[in-house]
Design a protein that fits this description.
- Pfam families: ABC_tran.
- This protein is of the alpha/beta class.
- Helices cover 33% and strands 29% of the residues.
- The protein has two domains: 3-219, P-loop containing nucleotide triphosphate hydrolases (Rossmann fold); 224-273.
- The strands form three sheets. Strands 6-7-8-3-9-10 form a six-stranded mixed sheet, sandwiched between helices.
- Helix 4 crosses helix 5 (106-119).
Length: 292
């Protein structure tokens, strides 16, 4: 199975939300990484066949998904960032409802509801009402509905937004589990969501694809650009004005500062191994500062 983006772009009035985007996806996990407003959600909605591209095509095994229409939707599982739920439904009733929308018969529904509840570790909560669920349980129920039709393409938008670290890890492992023989595409601005599971990462900024690589490739390009330096507390404000500052750790009478820079910021600064968080900081420091 191959999903191809052939110069896909989307324009709203006079603004390009997504500039021409091209890529080929096969089975595995792919991540769209970027800050809010980078075009991730718009691209995801085009993949989910909710928005039509202004130009370009999305092809599944050589066929335009707009022509495949229902056949494509039958292969698709989608979990948007803002996924509405019926709070007075039980988890089981909620999934039964979505199974009927997806055209499953009664026997299929019974089997699939039990299967996906087990998969997302909610089987013991099947009779509980959704309003009693934590944020993480709701996101897991959301992915359960996306898997009811046994999709070959799974699209999830900001899947761990608002979750605590334990639930983020659980959800991340769940995505890894379901990626076997599926194309899983997720968007996020949380680096830890993708650091250990993504086969390939697409870095997006202001609607355009800025860079694409696997984690090792992104880290290799950051070699020699991450520094550690000790300085006095009173120097910190000036440093933050002139450099991309990551971690700050206090050490008795000094502070240890992690700086992302193409050149050595100070003669006594020591180069250190980069992380994916450094990659994000390198590309998006200015955007995050504007949103503070």
């Amino acid at each position: 199975m191959k999903l191809v983006f052939d110069n896909v772009a989307k324009k709203f009035k006079d603004t390009w939300a997504v500039e021409p985007f091209s890529a080929e996806l096969t089975e595995g996990i792919y991540a769209l990484l970027g800050p809010n407003g980078s075009g991730k959600t718009t691209l995801m909605r085009m993949i989910a066949h909710i928005l039509k591209p202004t130009s370009g095509r999305i092809l599944l095994d050589g066929k335009d998904i707009s022509l495949l229409d229902e056949k494509y939707r039958d292969l698709l599982g989608y979990l948007p960032q803002d996924f509405g739920m019926y709070p007075h439904f039980t988890a089981e009733r909620f999934l039964n409802y979505f199974a009927s929308l997806k055209g499953l018969d009664k026997q299929e529904t019974k089997e699939k509801v039990t299967e996906v509840l087990k998969l997302v570790n909610l089987e013991e909560s099947r009779k509980k009402k959704v309003r009693t669920f934590s944020g993480g349980m709701k996101r897991r129920l959301g992915i359960a509905q996306a898997l009811l039709n046994d999709p070959r393409i799974v699209v999830v938008d900001e899947p761990t937004a608002g979750l605590d670290p334990k639930e983020r890890i659980r959800f991340r492992n769940l995505l890894s589990d379901i990626s076997h023989e599926r194309i899983v595409l997720l968007s996020t601005h949380i680096v830890s969501d993708i650091e250990y599971i993504a086969n390939e990462i697409f870095i997006m900024e202001k609607g355009s694809l800025k860079q694409r690589s696997n984690v090792d490739g992104l880290l290799a390009e950051m070699d020699g650009k991450v520094w550690k330096v000790l300085m006095k507390q009173e120097e910190l404000d000036s440093i933050q004005t002139h450099y991309k500052v990551g971690n700050i750790q206090r050490k008795e009478h000094e502070v240890e500062v992690r700086i992302v820079s193409d050149v050595q910021p100070f003669h006594h600064a020591k180069v250190v191994p980069p992380t994916l968080e450094d990659v994000y900081l390198y590309h998006f420091y200015e955007e995050d500062q504007e949103n503070v």
